[in-house]
Amino acid sequence: MKIFGIEYAPLLVPLERRRQTWAVFVWIGSFFFMGPAALLGFLYLFFFTRFYFVPLFYLAWYVADIKTPECGGRRWNWVRKWSLWKDYASYFPVSLVKEADLDPKFNYFIGSHPHGILCSGAFCNFATEGTNVSKVFPGIRFTLTTLNCQFVMPLYREFFMTSGAVSASRKSIDYVLGSSCGGNAVVLVVGGAPESLDTHPNLDDITLILKPRKGFIRLALKHGAHLVPSFSFGENEVYDQVDNPRGSRLRNLQDYLQKLIGLAPVLIKGRGIFQYSFGIIPNRRPITTVVGKPIPVERTGNPSDEQVNELHSKYVNELVDLFERHKNKYYPPREHIKLKIL
């Protein structure tokens, strides 16, 4: 039903679909609003009420806890198992497919591609039990890594850490991979925030920023963590954004701001709760994350540039092969779609 150009959702929508939309809104809303709302709330309590001690107590806690995202985080499995995440996964829906088992005797470094706008597939599959990742890969403890700025805003940082997420810094990854001899899988969205600026649906090529990304290869060699490519088919389809071709004024401004603040200032085009024309909620498009076969890596305490480059080339080739094996199944109308690796 359209009114003044806005397409509204039908009035009689099954309760299950309403729950799915609510689940996605809870996560997206927390990402955008929880931190700023908590900050404003603490400022209000401090300046305008007699409960000024509450933000002071939190500030003391915040300072004492500041290094936790780089020291393994604070995973709460009961939060990861919320039924909310099942509804979140069913909304798109998000699916998890494996090409091979992961032996708990080893540690793993999983590269997640593409970034998309908000890493919907990576978050659902590896930071929650929405797709039962612990049953798909028994004995493996997945840890999603992300920008350190995700752990700055009050209360949101605590909420996000319950997923098991940690900082994507070298120190943080060293901590996770060095804490045990096996059973840990660090998940890194390799393209990072800059890649999100190239995210547009229905393109004939998918841009991955991968050529300059070699730090994760060096860390995999250092710890002897087997490399595993993964690709979330459909990740780039759930949002659109304002047209921003490379070299345009908008894109130059976005690139500058991304380097300045870390996060990419993407002007997204999604949908709302009760209408489909605009908003911050992603569209219902299927996302299938395929986890590839592990690439064996021998521990090398101080890897040379030659070793890093060789393993990087092997990883890129395995990722491209994974994409080619599955693209016709998950992108059936676009058989000529290809990866554009920058």
UniProtKB/TrEMBL annotation:
It is a multi-pass membrane protein. It is found in: Endoplasmic reticulum membrane. The chain crosses the membrane at residues 21-47. Its EC number is 2.3.1.-. Keywords: Acyltransferase, Endoplasmic reticulum, Lipid biosynthesis, Lipid metabolism, Membrane, Transferase, Transmembrane, Transmembrane helix. InterPro entries: DAGAT. PANTHER family: ACYLTRANSFERASE (PTHR12317:SF79), DIACYLGLYCEROL O-ACYLTRANSFERASE (PTHR12317). Belongs to the diacylglycerol acyltransferase family. This is Acyltransferase. It comes from Daphnia magna.
